[in-house]
What does this fold into?
Amino acid sequence: MIKFFGGKKDKHATPTGDSTSSPETLADSPGDQSDETPEKKPGLLARMKQAVSRTRESFSTKIENLVALTRTVDESTLEELETVLLTSDLGIATTTKILDALRDRARHQAIDGGAELRELLKAQLCAILEAPQRPIAAPDAPPMVTFLVGVNGAGKTTSAGKLSAWHRAQDRTVLLCAADTFRAAAIEQLEVWATRSGVEMIKTRQGGDPAAVLYDAASAAKARHIDDLIVDTAGRLHTKTGLMDELDKMRRTAAKIIPGAPHQVLLVMDATTGQNGLNQARQFTQAAGVTGIILTKLDGTAKGGIAVAIAQELNLPVRFVGVGEQISDLLEFSPAAFVDSLLG
Ligand code: GDP
It folds into this structure.
């Protein structure tokens, strides 16, 4: 569960005109947010269920078949379960951990049929997903600075827009920083999201220096006591030294203006890439100081099991999941809701 603390709740903070002449601000339009803000908690389980329906179809069906046929849980049942987990994008390390725990349990106390096996599996999945979840250390004074990083096409810009709307729905003020000055149309695309979510955005021209626009955005966010500064960065691979250096420069720039910034670096990861994406994410995590994951496109894939592998193998919390292309299609991740949605 994410905890946010402090920060001034000034919903209608207006531009103070303090950005420099090159970066520009996009005027706020408070009226825009009313009908498109994300839903709050009540519908979370239902929406999660809908989002993981493709994963559920394949994963849950296989598990339910196994459970239905199981009167006594023996080694051959556990081997079948192992195959199901391996073919559901959980990966070898995660599957081994789960099976070791189940075998250990079976040695001490027999597993009483398929239904109990299912409950034990759910508990294992929950424990793995919970383990890396931790509260975010809130800054002493706002803003909280969040960088979004990842490869092109993962859904960074879309997630930056959705995340802005999500924070607005929590009654927090948001400033967006368009620091993806590399990809053509990224700034315009983010501008559309800024308007939709009713937040201001600070930008520069395409090809401009991302550290410079971040400097202006961080200064403005601090001066205006904005709660959240969300920074969309250029898509990069961990192997591109120049771009990784640029990210380092952005970190230093943010920290100069706002102590402790960036407070979060969220890796935006496309769930449809499954185990392949995991390898890339592992290297990214080390190179970019990633603190959490936004797992996008969960709606379009049967590879949702990757969330469990991320928690186990990267030791990173999944913070949010992207479940569609609309502004409200971002859900705060809850291990229990996720597991219930898969095997409820
Ligand atoms: P970026 O290059 O990382 O900034 O990626 P974009 O934000 O431009 O997203 C790439 C594509 O993925 C766009 O067509 C988005 O609409 C789509 N997309 C992003 N998040 C989701 C999601 O959660 N679900 C679905 N179905 N599509 C998404």
